[in-house]
Design brief:
The chain is mainly alpha-helical. The chain has 12 helices and no strands. The radius of gyration is 26 Å and the shape is globular. About 25% of the residues are buried. The C terminus is likely disordered.
């Protein structure tokens, strides 16, 4: 005779009750520390937005941390026109988009060769790419400047007929400095993909290109999205290389457009704050569009199963 429990007595295995962790002092200190760090990062941005909404005469009289008498968006219109932001936005897109696409494509291809192909010395190659990220870019300013002035380019590609003062020069410098980091990240991610997938494709007669483009690359979308967010932010915010390797003011990226808001004898810092907020908006938009993929790419490998 078999005894069975009544339906109401059977445990519901489909529902898992959330486990409440006890509040420990160390956990409370961790949350307080993270809140302070977040506040430290957000406070300058909030202060810049607050200052951009107030007239400079008011802040000069009452101080930046005082309560406002009036708020206005006039500074944003002035910054948009006075700094010629649409023109400099276009310059930045001409530089950043090709550099971003080339960096991710070439880095993923090299990472595939390191992680999946039996390339001799692939571990040494990966170490070299990783070690290249440790070299400060400032030490290369003088040799790169000399090299760029010596590399010839046709007139339709550069007005100076050299790599110096050309969009191609900035694209190549971004590609060179971001390439190693992307190879390191993508190669480590590709190693987490089961090798049985590519081995089965190899048995079916798939070429190297098909194994890379149609099989491996679609599985790398999370890490590519995370890298795209980081690389776009880093390339977009670059000011050093544009200042060193370009001389024409109308070719500079948008980060240099803020100089148009500085006067010779007087600088309206509220107007400069409005321009800074407008310059930072594209990176915030890109992060908002890709934040799910960015978080997913950062958490890959943190859990198993």
């Amino acid at each position: 005779m078999t005894l069975t429990a009544p339906p109401e007595a059977r445990p519901d295995r489909g529902r898992a009750e959330p486990v409440r962790r006890p509040l420990r002092p160390l956990r409370i200190l961790l949350h307080v520390f993270l809140a302070l760090v977040a506040l430290g990062w957000l406070l300058p941005l909030a202060l810049a937005v607050y200052a951009s909404l107030r007239p400079y005469d008011e802040t000069a009289r009452l101080g930046y941390f005082s309560l406002p008498e009036q708020l206005t968006l006039d500074y944003y219109g002035r910054a948009w026109s006075q700094a010629e932001l649409p023109h400099y936005y276009l310059n930045t897109l001409i530089i950043v988009l090709p550099a971003l696409v080339l960096t991710l494509f070439l880095a993923s291809f090299v990472a595939f060769a390191i992680a999946r192909a039996r390339v001799p010395g692939r571990k040494t190659l990966l170490i070299v790419f990783t070690a290249g990220n440790l070299l400060p870019p400032q030490v290369l300013i003088t040799p790169l400047y000399s090299l760029y002035t010596l590399v010839p380019l046709p007139a339709w590609l550069s007005d100076s007929q050299s790599l110096y003062d050309s969009y191609l020069g900035l694209i190549l410098i971004h590609l060179a400095f971001q390439f190693g980091f992307c190879v390191f990240v993508i190669a480590n991610f590709m190693r987490t993909i089961p090798e049985e997938i590519t081995e089965a494709a190899l048995v079916d007669g798939a070429s190297v290109w098909r194994r890379y483009y149609q099989l491996t690359l679609p599985l790398c979308r999370p890490v590519l999205a995370a890298l795209a967010t980081l690389q776009f932010t880093w390339m977009y915010n670059d000011f050093l290389w544009a200042l060193v390797l370009m001389s024409s003011g109308d070719k500079l990226p948008v980060t240099s457009a803020l100089n148009n808001l500085r006067g010779q004898f007087f600088t309206d810092y509220n107007l400069l704050a409005a321009g800074s907020v407008l310059v930072a908006l594209p990176t915030l938009i890109v992060f908002q569009l890709l934040h799910k993929q960015f978080v997913a790419g950062l958490t890959l490998g943190s859990t198993k199963g």
